[in-house]
Design brief:
By secondary structure, the protein is an alpha/beta fold. The chain has ten helices and ten strands. A seven-stranded mixed sheet has the order 6-2-1-7-8-10-9. Strands 3-5-4 form a three-stranded antiparallel sheet. A hairpin with a 3-residue loop joins strand 4 and strand 5 (180-183). The chain is globular.
Length: 272
């Protein structure tokens, strides 16, 4: 099938998507953008790329739908286990140590770029298991894909999607049905799903942990730096940032401190 986008069209949409989301399309992943836009034109029963561009730049709803369609939503439960080992064995104990000094009893975690919800549900299951009384927690889960957020909000996953969940968590936090597994109300109540474009400030402050894994790889260096600085502002003192194992802040001028634990590497906002 012939390419939908001319070079001019490609540059036009690439700039639009970058300006709206920070997501970068290069020549190497041009075919992905081409195929996703073909789907949108088919859905809207349109044949002209220019007409679709006019639509998407004048209709905020279609802009959200388009950005949803061009994002990649690959995830799974307990993805990159060492990160969660570091959360349990290092991060949570240090957070609670700090909270004893302030009297704050709530642990606040943001799963940014949460896709279909496996990451925030993983975090919530772990905290339900290990967080001692009287501490409570809240997980905010955000993504630019409304379709993915709806899956997370429903909390239902086919049987082949729950393979990574340890048996003790699966039986405690999910109900088996004929077609898959439904998260319990107890677990779902711990997570607040919310649409958010990482191009913008979330408005969150004094967070204890941010997970933003395998998202920055879709941004160029300028968008990465702006996102990281917004994360820094959203975190409280002595708070932590997890990014993907293939991502790094090395060479980037950020105030985060690199932290190597016995389980995994992460970053810390350490304000004395």
């Amino acid at each position: 099938m012939a390419d939908l986008l001319t070079d001019v069209d490609f540059d036009m949409f690439r700039k639009l998507i970058y300006d709206e989301s920070g997501i970068t399309f290069s020549a190497t992943n041009r075919s992905i953008l081409d195929s996703r836009l073909k789907e949108r034109l088919r859905e809207k029963q349109m044949t002209s790329v220019q007409d679709y561009y006019k639509l998407v730049t004048s209709d905020a709803g279609e802009m959200k739908t388009m950005l949803d369609s061009v994002t990649t939503n690959l995830t799974r439960f307990f993805r990159n286990q060492p990160h969660f080992d570091a959360l349990v064995n290092y991060v949570i104990p240090h957070i609670l140590e700090e909270k004893k000094k302030t009297g704050d009893k709530t642990v606040r975690i943001w799963s940014a770029g949460c896709s279909t919800g496996e990451e925030p549900y993983t975090i919530a299951m772990i905290l339900k298991d290990v967080l001692p009384a009287p501490y409570t927690f809240v997980v905010t889960a955000s993504d630019i894909s409304l379709k993915s957020l709806m899956v997370g909000q429903q909390g239902f996953y086919p049987a082949n999607r729950v393979d990574g969940i340890p048996e003790k968590y699966l039986t405690r936090f999910f109900t088996k049905t004929d077609t898959g597994y439904q998260a319990t109300k107890e677990l779902m109540s711990c997570i607040r799903f919310d649409y958010h474009n990482l191009r913008n400030d979330s408005g969150a402050r004094n967070l204890d942990v941010i997970f933003c894994r395998n998202v920055l790889i879709y941004f160029d260096e300028a968008a990465q730096l702006n996102t990281i600085n917004r994360f820094y502002n959203s975190l409280g003192n002595h708070a932590y940032l997890f990014i993907g194992h293939s991502e790094s802040l090395f060479g980037m001028k950020t105030p985060f401190e690199f932290l190597k634990t016995d389980w995994a590497c992460l970053y810390q906002k350490n304000v004395n």
